[in-house]
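Weekly sync notes, structure subgroup
Attendees: PM, AL, DS (notes)

Item 1: joint prediction request from the bench team. They want all two components modeled as one assembly rather than separately. Inputs as received:
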Amino acid sequence: MDERRSDLKKIIMDTKTLPTLPGVINKLNSLSNDDKSSVQEMARIVSADQVLSARILRLANSPSYGFYRVSTISNAMILLGVNVVKSLALSSSIFEIMEKNSVGLWEHSLGTATAAGIIARKLALPEVEEITTAGLLHDIGKVIIGLKCAEQMPLIRNKIKLDDLYISDAERAVLDTDHAEVGGWLSKSWFLPDKLSEPIACHHNVACSEDHRVKTSVVHLADVLIKASGFGDSGDSYVPPIQQLAWDQLKLDEALLQEIVVELEDKLVEVKNFSLELASAAVA
Amino acid sequence: MQKIPLNLATAEMVLARDIFKNDSPTGMPICGKGTELSDSLISRLQQMGVQSLYVEGHPVWQEGDRGLTEQLADLEKRFSKTMDNRYNTTLLEVYRTHFTAAMGDDGGRTEE
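Output from the run, pasted for the record:
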């Protein structure tokens, strides 16, 4: 059992065949660790890649961020924060594959990012942008599993359908691991900050987060809300249980939940248009 | 009341909420609720960069759009695994109320 899992971990973490992490990210990483580097310098690196620039501007202008009319990369970096742009660069290259392969998962992720942003703002939490990014990336493990374990995917899908399982349970039955754990491995190997990797790794089990329990709770709830709303397709169609720990961490109650749902459903109309636009741009 | 993207708006639809400049509630109001849309108004709105608007009723049925009964049945199915979780039943109730209100002519309107 454990052997299969560590084998799989090796396969999944084989960096040579990991689909992305373009050179841009490494350069950004080294620049952002250097105190003397400026945002302009980093923006220049990002600008060198026009596809990436377009995506970052698009995301910065997307409803999930709520900043409209951001037209330069350096503005986007100042508004979103360098870390966010870094993870956007990361996610946009991942989502390039995702958009093509699974519009449903892309929508689910974008929706979760939107929901996470709304919850964070409603609760006046710090680092709304990071929470939104964590929401965007929370199911990144599914992309990796889809890429690295393509052969087992039909098995997983079958299990979900026949046994009426959550996708995590089906993944564990077939692979001995699940997308949250894989996402955790991946974010470690990409040196993502804990405030992103914990929500990714623990969004189905808030108790396993240590330092960023509130952020993890937000992403957990955002995922639940998007599944409840029936927006996008995350692999199965059942709403996961809201964990008491998350409920308590966020000090939720029915009235608050109602406000969040109304605002979310309102925003989702725009998100839907945004994702349709992206899909049609990808075809064109 | 339904929120639709501007490119699906047609003449004779009636606005259910004010439209603001830059889609921002703090912006300048451009067009008040209760206004009946016309082709020229729609193209003016396009020029001003308005992206979406609220109209009365549920006039736009897109492929895959579902009626309220179907929507509620889907909703119950999505929650069917977690009906023993009290937080989820609370959420189900919130969503049920929201969907019902959103599909009605007068429902879903928040205080303005």
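Discussion: The mean pLDDT of chain A is 82.
Action: AL to compare against the crosslinking data before next sync.
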